[in-house]
Model the fold of this input.
Amino acid sequence: MAETTSTVAVASNGYSAQNPQFTLYSHRIGPNGFKVAEVLSELGLHYRTIFLDFGAGENGMKTPAYEAINPNGRIPALIDHSANDLVVWESAAIILYVCKKYDGEFRLWAPTLDEQAQIETWLMYQATGQGPYLGQAFWFMLYHPERLDSATERYVDETKRVLGIVQKQLAREGSNGWLVLGRITAADIAFLHWYLHIARIKIVLKDEFPIVWEWVCRMKERPGVKAGMEGAVFPEGATVLKT
Ligand SMILES: N[C@@H](CCC(=O)N[C@@H](CS)C(=O)NCC(=O)O)C(=O)O
Done:
């Protein structure tokens, strides 16, 4: 299995880059693993990443070895070695676990239930209202074996509808350019990584969603986000990082 370790130098709980607290199962292109890596890096937590392949090959996700970790056979999955090798999977569940347990300084999380509810609202919206639509838009435009224009159009249109909602949220009065609480939270990180690939499905953020574009530009320069992206591959057409 291909492997990297996080480069963030902050020591935590006695763990280090050489002796990381977590193992993260990810994929070099798939956005869902990088959301988790970006949260861990932003919080200065130490993890090693194991990059899997799609499919049932030796290093694949659809193997008994990996399905014993994540029965859904997809990435991400996180093992917390400081909690008896507890396994958490589904990116939003992992982000919530990590933030609730390890973000005592509220860098991406918040102290009150009312504030937490706002972060959770957007985390859930990402998981149910953005991720599946973008995933299907990418699938039908780039990977489906036959051309199905109506399906492609449906999912690209839904993706644009969601982007419109995100843009409105970022632009509202008092937002300071963030999704909730007027500052960066785990919700922002959860939405980000898909957008780094979005030019591959012919959406030009800079022109079509300039406020989202400006937020992406700010986010991707954060040291924690950059560290979390280590090992990421952006196929031809994912131009966001270059401009
Ligand atoms: N709802 C899941 C989605 C996980 C997911 O679809 N991951 C993709 C990569 S980003 C995957 O593993 N795909 C492999 C497959 O579909 O077989 C989450 O947020 O964790």
Remarks:
- Residues 7-11 have pLDDT under 50 and may be disordered.
- The chain has nine helices and five strands.
